[in-house]
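Replying to the earlier thread about multi-chain prediction with a worked example.

Input:
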Amino acid sequence: PFCPGNEAATPPEISTIRRDNSAPNAPGWTLRVIPNKFPALRIEGEIDRRGEGIYDRMNGIGAHEVIIETPEHAQDLADMDPGAFEDVIGAYQSRLLDLKKDERLRYVMIFKNFGAAAGASLEHSHSQLIATPVVPKRVMEEMDGAKRYFEYRERCIFCDIVVQETKNRKRLICENNSFILVCPFAPRFPFECWIVPRNHLSNFEDATAEQLKDLAAILKDCLMRLKKALNTPPYNYVIHTAPITVRGIDFYHYHLEIIPVLTHIAGFEWGTGFYINPTGPEDSAAYLKNII
Amino acid sequence: PFCPGNEAATPPEISTIRRDNSAPNAPGWTLRVIPNKFPALRIEGEIDRRGEGIYDRMNGIGAHEVIIETPEHAQDLADMDPGAFEDVIGAYQSRLLDLKKDERLRYVMIFKNFGAAAGASLEHSHSQLIATPVVPKRVMEEMDGAKRYFEYRERCIFCDIVVQETKNRKRLICENNSFILVCPFAPRFPFECWIVPRNHLSNFEDATAEQLKDLAAILKDCLMRLKKALNTPPYNYVIHTAPITVRGIDFYHYHLEIIPVLTHIAGFEWGTGFYINPTGPEDSAAYLKNII
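Result:
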């Protein structure tokens, strides 16, 4: 349903990039943003918090959008033209800036699921965005952890990661002017990768045009390395950024986490929140560094 | 390697149940507990906490055991003889009581992975136990949440769940003298089930012989319902109990969570810690209640 000519099979588009003067909801686009046809959350209505005995309920207010990254059905993001890849990253930022205007929303989660084992239900390359009226649990945890670190050391933990990883280089895969690509010190999964900005910035929506260009370059590089190293693995990536209601904080630093899906989550991980990873980050990084 | 006659292929047994006078590490057992041949954590050594720049390391001290539930290779736990099933639950408790004596340990996580998609690497029916020198993250979160509830209401949240679910019965699947089986109010997954003791008890290792018998009966009932309803789905179950260093607390209540593996975790779940579940607990419970 995401191929050109099938525009009527999806909800009307929210925004598009068109190289010609073609009409909305018609072929001619190179990137297209649409509401999800089967949304997890809906933009209409009131939040309406209420009790049910000891439990709490609220309505599913929010937004669920799909970013169709390319008109070509079989295009793999890793092989995409660099300019087109920059458009994808640009679309993430512009949707975030637009949704930020809705005062009911607190967070915009931008992510991509590639491959059925990573939760992708359609093959045509796309990313998703879910805007929520609450700050998600994992985001709160990461922010709280970073805040505690800052309170003790008066330094941002992500800035410290950049310093340590660029100095010892054991877990560094590659770098450019704005970002480093590393296997994190305590990865949950083999070949887990993080893209971290060199300079402190808490919110992805405040990244400059030059940063976005560099992010597109290093993310494409990362996906190409994983594709070659692991034979086109399923993967998830998620943009970790501060809540849209928060700006310019000194203890948190936006970044992107990429998880190849090579194993299954099992009882131990469900019960503990800990992950057993047989492949050390130094080994994963050395392998990915030598690809290409 | 778990079938009778292959005892030499596994590490020497920690404990067994034998119906005859057969020798250790030889056939004749009906249940066998062994160390995991490829352990996530090892019992030998010192914890040895140390820094590496901004990061922290410690050695992987702990225990990783396998409970081989039956000598029959193709036996499914759901179809097991009730007495043999009671032996499995009894083995969980006796291993917990034994590991509790090791003062380096803080938690014993008991779980079962059934089916490859649920993380089982061997087909022969088995459960696992991992004892850790720290209280796991998810356990801390659940304890903290329960404690905050208790501080506000001076009631255990699990006791409140038992009262509300047995009263309105919308999410109740079945019950016996000691336990209820429910689909929880906010399930992460379709057909997620919880077994909750009727009476307040924080630690699984303090359950009476009568409770263990009732737990075996209701867990077997749950597994049979899931098997019939979902055509032998992969699943995980985990015993949620208070840390072994804690006893008789009033705000936490041991229970068992069963998760059929029907879907994949994707970027949204990784990023948020929230779960999108298309099947409401009232629907799952109604369906499971009418099975059999």
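Residues 153-289 of chain B form a domain with the HIT family, subunit A fold (CATH 3.30.428.10).

Feel free to reuse this layout for your own posts.
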